[in-house]
């Protein structure tokens, strides 16, 4: 964990922003996998980690804004726990590690919240995303679990997003550690992507590298020779020459900061002409955006820039036609690029998404589009120094979508369906990097991971 002053300062900032009431953070619990004692790997809630730093189940934090006091609630271990889990520091000791004097057993949390409700004090909390936390909140607050969403503190949501959006130097170091591991994951995948091997052998090796480096993968590895399925978690195909393999994977550090990198490579290590053509367009979109990212630019503009490079490239290949700007404005490019350019990255791979994507990625000035494709852009608002985000354009040939749009005669002025027909066996390509917005421009985080055609052919060869 960071020095205790980091957590003290973060909580103090929250007090300034929230002004009054109690702020309640429930840490996560262990979740059963197939029977109660056999659990999934424990993952602490990111907001809890950000403000309270402690990475153990069954604890809660309270910030009493009115009385300027911070509390940790959790039970000390007993001898049974020590026998099965080994020695554990006391709650008092854990509290001191993150600058908190006031610790108490979990039962006291119920007393404190009950008393606060009696006194009519405001209790701020964010939207739960796990059933057991929803139930615990319902019990604490004495409301029906289905009504919890009506009591979310939007002030707290906004105050957390304000802080977590701007990454400090010590956070950037953690994210770069996660990219260092991703470098090894992806270059290993590049060396393994030979015909005859199964996808699961590569995805398993990638996950093993993440675990060996100290954290889990930051999301289930996406690895497929059917990269046209955007989040393909099926890893049962055997690699064959002629297919492109999409590998979209990252890891968490021991402190739960994430990386999220995508590389796409030709099975066997040599691009054929058709693969070169499509790959070059996606790479140009990725690099053009990176050239242009700087503070004050709305990320939505960067999304449209990537769409423009993609639509122009596809027009040059004869797959699209007509006026490119009109095509993008109406959403015709989204048949090939049906997702957004990227998202924030931090302690969550889609950073803070649990707080509500529109609060994280949009604001009063820039609202989410409702047009297919652009609607899936997770981050649209103006960039600020300290933002860390992904740049991940792609081109996909999704046979079912092509067939549907063709049957509906959609965008006949912009899509050359006869030419597209020949690409229905192509798959997909995505290229993703992690970027820090600096005071003047941006920096691609981590050691460069091969992405040009020649770099890929060399490492795969
Ligand atoms: N890397 C997966 C995603 O961004 O959705
Ligand atoms: Mn991503």
What does this structure look like?
The structure is a single chain. By secondary structure, the chain is an alpha+beta fold. It folds into two domains: 4-165, Creatinase/prolidase N-terminal domain (Creatine Amidinohydrolase, Chain A, domain 1), CATH 3.40.350.10; 169-460, Creatinase/methionine aminopeptidase superfamily (Creatine Amidinohydrolase, Alpha-Beta Complex). 39% of the residues lie in helices and 13% in strands. Manganese (II) ion binds at residues 260, 343, 390, 392, 432.
Features:
alpha+beta; Creatine Amidinohydrolase, Chain A, domain 1; Creatine Amidinohydrolase; 2 domains; 5-stranded mixed β-sheet; 3-stranded antiparallel β-sheet; 16 helices; binds manganese (II) ion
């Amino acid at each position: 964990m960071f020095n205790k002053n980091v957590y003290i300062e973060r909580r103090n900032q929250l007090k300034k922003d929230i002004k009054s009431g109690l702020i309640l953070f429930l840490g996560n619990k262990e979740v059963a996998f197939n029977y109660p004692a056999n659990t999934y790997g424990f993952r602490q809630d990111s907001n809890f980690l950000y403000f309270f730093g402690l990475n153990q189940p069954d604890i809660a934090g309270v910030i009493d804004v009115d009385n300027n006091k911070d509390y940790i609630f959790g039970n000390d271990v007993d001898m049974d726990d020590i026998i099965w889990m080994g020695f554990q520091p006391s709650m008092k000791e854990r509290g001191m590690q993150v600058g908190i004097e006031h610790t108490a057993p979990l039962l006291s949390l119920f007393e404190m919240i009950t008393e606060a409700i009696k006194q009519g004090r405001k209790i701020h909390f964010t939207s739960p995303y796990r059933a057991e936390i929803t139930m615990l909140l319902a019990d604490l607050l004495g409301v029906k679990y289905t009504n919890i969403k009506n009591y979310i503190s939007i002030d707290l949501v906004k105050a957390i997003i304000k802080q977590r959006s701007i990454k400090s130097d010590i956070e950037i170091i953690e994210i770069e550690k996660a990219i260092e591991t991703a470098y090894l994951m992806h270059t290993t995948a590049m060396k393994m992507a030979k015909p005859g091997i199964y996808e699961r052998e590569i995805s398993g090796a990638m996950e093993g590298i993440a675990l060996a480096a100290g954290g889990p993968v930051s999301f289930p590895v996406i690895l497929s020779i059917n990269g046209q399925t955007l989040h393909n978690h099926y890893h049962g195909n055997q690699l064959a020459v002629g297919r492109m393999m999409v590998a979209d994977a990252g890891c968490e550090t021991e402190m739960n900061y994430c990386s999220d990198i995508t590389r796409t490579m030709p099975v066997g290590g040599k691009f054929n002409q058709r693969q070169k053509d499509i790959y070059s367009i996606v790479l140009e979109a990725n690099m053009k955006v990176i050239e242009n990212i700087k503070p004050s630019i709305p990320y939505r503009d960067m999304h449209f820039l990537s769409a423009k490079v993609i639509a122009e490239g596809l027009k040059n290949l004869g797959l699209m036609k007509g006026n490119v700007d009109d095509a993008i404005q109406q959403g015709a490019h989204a048949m090939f690029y049906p997702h957004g350019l990227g998202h924030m990255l931090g302690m969550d791979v889609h950073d803070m998404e649990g707080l509500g994507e529109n609060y994280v990625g949009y604001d009063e000035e820039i609202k989410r589009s409702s047009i297919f494709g652009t609607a899936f852009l997770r981050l649209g608002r103006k960039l600020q120094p300290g933002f860390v985000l992904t740049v991940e354009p792609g081109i996909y040939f999704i046979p079912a979508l092509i067939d549907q749009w063709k049957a509906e005669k959609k965008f006949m002025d912009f899509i050359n369906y006869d030419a597209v027909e020949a690409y229905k066996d192509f798959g997909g390509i995505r290229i993703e990097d992690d970027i820090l917005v600096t005071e003047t421009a941006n920096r691609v985080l981590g050691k460069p991971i091969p992405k040009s055609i020649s770099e890929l052919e060399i490492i795969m060869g």
